[in-house]
Design a protein that fits this description.
With 107 residues, the protein is an all-alpha fold. The chain has five helices and no strands. The longest helix is centred in the first third of the chain and has 41 residues. This is Recombinase family protein.
Length: 107
């Protein structure tokens, strides 16, 4: 009975230390990232997505004619993305734009 209690206590101690080291590691990582950001800002590094031209709906749809054809043939979003070679999100965006411009009707 004593050995079982000792094992339970050791297990709890180990879990506590593991939790403590995990928190310390996370704090260290966040501190290093923050200091890296400060150095980058001091060196005039720009963060985020570069500013550029935003495509119009018509231009985006005209660049994705094959995708539109497959959507009209009722291919699923995943199959369409595999055939065309793009992400599911791109197919969803094309589908949404087609519905909004009434090139495709919701079922």
């Amino acid at each position: 009975m004593k050995t079982l209690l000792v094992l339970i206590m050791l297990d709890k101690i180990q879990a506590t230390f593991t939790n403590l080291f995990t928190k310390l590691e996370r704090e260290t990582t966040l501190d290093r990232a923050a200091s890296g950001r400060k150095i980058a800002i001091a060196n005039n590094v720009k963060f985020g997505r570069p500013k550029g031209e935003v495509k119009s709906c018509e231009k985006f749809l005209s660049e994705n004619k094959r995708m539109q054809q497959l959507l009209k043939e009722e291919y699923s979003i995943r199959n369409n993305s595999k055939i065309v070679g793009c992400s599911d999100k791109t197919v969803q965006k094309v589908k949404r734009l087609m519905i909004n411009s009434q090139l495709l009707f919701k079922l």
